[in-house]
Fold this protein.
Amino acid sequence: MENKDTMKTEIKNSYELPIRINLRFGIGYSMLFLVMGVVCLASAFIPINDIRKDGLFILLLMKIGSPLFGAFCLYAFLFQNLLKKSYIDIDIDKIDFHQMFGTKTIWWDDVLDISTYTLNHNEFLGFITKQKVEKAQKGGFFSMLNSSMGGMYGGAIPLKQIHKLEKDEIVFKIKNILKNQHTSESANQVKDISDKIELSVAQNYDEEMPGSLNMAILYSSLFALGLGIVYGLSIFIFRVNILIIPIFGVFGIFYYFIKYLKPEGYRAYFRLWTGLLGLLSVFIARISLYFFFNKLLPTSTNLLRSITGYFEYLPSHLNTEFLFVIIGFATAGVGFFISGPSIPIFRKFSKPFLRRHGQLFFKKEEQYYTIYFVSPENFDEGSEKFTVRIAQGCEIEIEKKNLKYFKIPSEIFKENGITFPIDYLSKSNGGKFVDLSFGGAGNTETYAYDCYLIANAKKELEVIKLEIH
């Protein structure tokens, strides 16, 4: 017990704890909240003289919904920027999040890991906690959807709202605090749980069920059928086209497809199936509307007549069916692009749009870099890969938020048996680092974020992923 207390005291002194991180909206968000707040509040005073039955929703929206939203926007701006009551305290035992609607505490003993993620173009440093991981391990559609939207994290620091402190320095300190808090036993626990998350959440494959393409096709088709009927029923009842139903429904189609398919059995062209079912679910909704309005029973004769009749009717009445056609293809697009590895021909077509440094191809998506050490069209993310996450030890040189130089400890390659192409990477500091130059001078500093090495089954390096904030 004394050793643990002594260690905590050393960590506290070493990292000058507690640390207070004040959160503020940037100029853009401040103006947005102010303008939206004033406009939405003002809308309550706009007179509405012609109130018809169909206008009741608009009346409620303008007189109640809009002012409430405006009040929230103004309160958020006042709380965050003027009253300055939004902040995060990091101490040796816990992290306190002081937010608009109360204080939330995360204890370091419950934190398994830390990583950055992006949601709606906002960058976060997330704390992965035991409770969230346990929920994710239970699996299910909502677990998959929740995890994809930041649900794996018990709390998160919005990096864009940090002011007066260096983001890299904050991230580096937090990572070191976690590293010193974890014993070797808890470190192994983190690795074991991370492996389970990757299987149960990212792949969503149920080990207890035998992998079967037929089962995957059957259950995804049944879900698409149910989705279409529910979508059509919602239009019939509410007389409003609720677009969120087919868009979110296609995630369910994808979930039920991969749930019954072994990960190694998944192929890039299967995304075509997800997109096709998304499209068909919208047409099923349109046909089901015909049944609801005419109060028809779903007999085989009625089904055959309505299906053939609709598709004969559609080409000559595209002007009246235009909305459903657009929604159908939009849903198909969502299904096509969310579901798994890319198709080789798309990788080939995307190659001319990648950036280059010498013979090296790379892409930069917001703050994330993907650097290819094989020809991009030959990198198949659906094939067997060997991935190594590097949390600490790298160094970086940045110029105007652009990567100029990157160093990776050479022991990482040695420990994991990964080979790298000497045409693009070289060793420095007496072999201590493996260097990647993007035209920089090598004046590097500590890299605070995660870096990923992705190799093929033979452990030949194919891709490096890193981030810059």
Q: What stands out?
A: The radius of gyration is 27 Å. Residues 213-340 form one domain. The longest helix spans residues 56-82.
